[in-house]
Design a protein that fits this description.
Strand content: under 5%
Mean pLDDT: 81
Low-confidence stretches: 6-29
Number of helices: 12
Structural class: mainly alpha
Order of helices and strands: HHHHHHHHHHHH
Distance between the termini: 138 Å
Radius of gyration: 41 Å
Largest sheet: none
């Protein structure tokens, strides 16, 4: 099996049950299919090592690559009914591993902040440096197309890009890598360049040992334990929320009463002002004005001429 390509491409990828038969042989004539755990274990043994090598080419970090593969298979086991009937279970796990490995949040983690020491050989070191210098989307497109061997439409679909956009990324990525590795610029046709890149990427990936990956039993056990913890946490939060709601309903008043503020003595405030007391002169003027306004001015009565 190609060290960088875990199985066939997406259109011909086997289902989980077919992967079991391919990896372990047909189970006999009783017609009983493999159990979910057996199908998952077969898929893990079939793809985990290659996925580890691929994520290493994406990140340059072995510990992060192992963690990404473990997280991807934990998600696959949690959603196994969906993954088992997927037309490309290998691609499902691969996409989950790539997404986790290339998350920018890992830069904030001390253990994953810097890449591992590069290979000692000049050729593999230059190739890995060229890969890591590419933008993440270009790096992923180049690895899927020229490393894993997916077609351009499948590469575009897995990277969530249009086919023309994926083709542009692929051309630019090849040009950037060939600029740092002149031997990759020698082929005259794109197919020859793709084949040469596939050979170099496969050799670089094969040099990474995958013996430190956990066994599938630990992956399934860890996934089930995490699912149980999340379920218990959700139940506890729901119970707490219901309890707080009941306490609030029991202690809340049935009607609202405006609270009465206690009287307090306030100092430093001037007394309320009002009209000044009228003097005798003011009173006399007030009386005069009142009487004149009451009678009004004399009227002119017309006389007949």
């Amino acid at each position: 099996m190609d060290p960088i390509e875990p199985g066939t491409t997406a259109p011909e990828a086997p289902r989980a049950a077919e992967t079991v038969e391919a990896a372990e042989g047909t189970r006999g004539g009783d017609g009983a299919g493999p159990s979910p755990a057996e199908a998952f274990d077969a898929l893990y043994r079939h793809t985990a090592a290659a996925l580890f090598r691929q994520t290493y080419l994406l990140t340059g970090r072995r510990a992060l690559s192992r963690e990404a593969v473990g997280k991807a298979f934990e998600q696959a086991w949690q959603r196994w009914p969906e993954v088992a009937v997927d037309r490309d279970p290998v691609g499902w796990v691969r996409a989950a591993a790539y997404e986790y490995a290339m998350s920018p949040w890992h830069r904030l983690r001390r253990e994953h902040r810097h890449p591992d020491p590069p290979p000692e050989a000049p050729g593999p070191r230059a190739l890995l440096d060229a890969l890591l210098s590419l933008p993440p989307s270009y790096r992923r497109t180049l690895l899927l197309h020229d490393g894993v061997g997916l077609g351009l439409p499948e590469t575009a679909a897995e990277t969530e890009a249009s086919t023309p956009a994926a083709a542009g990324r692929l051309v630019n990525a090849r040009a950037a890598v060939a600029e740092q590795l002149p031997e990759l610029a020698e082929p005259s046709t794109p197919d020859e360049q793709s084949a040469l890149l596939h050979e170099h990427l496969g050799a670089l990936a094969l040099a990474q040992p995958a013996s430190s990956l956990p066994v599938p039993d630990l992956i399934r056990t860890g996934s089930e334990r995490k699912a149980q913890l999340w379920t218990r946490a959700a139940i506890a939060f729901t119970v707490l929320l219901i309890g707080l709601t009941l306490i609030t309903l029991a202690t809340a008043p049935t009607r609202y009463e405006t609270p009465r503020s206690p009287g307090q003595r306030v100092e430093g405030v001037p007394p309320l002002g009002g009209p000044q007391k009228l003097t005798p002169t003011d009173k006399k003027l007030q009386k005069k004005l009142g009487s004149e306004l009451g009678r009004g001015p004399g009227r002119l009565v017309p006389r007949a001429g």
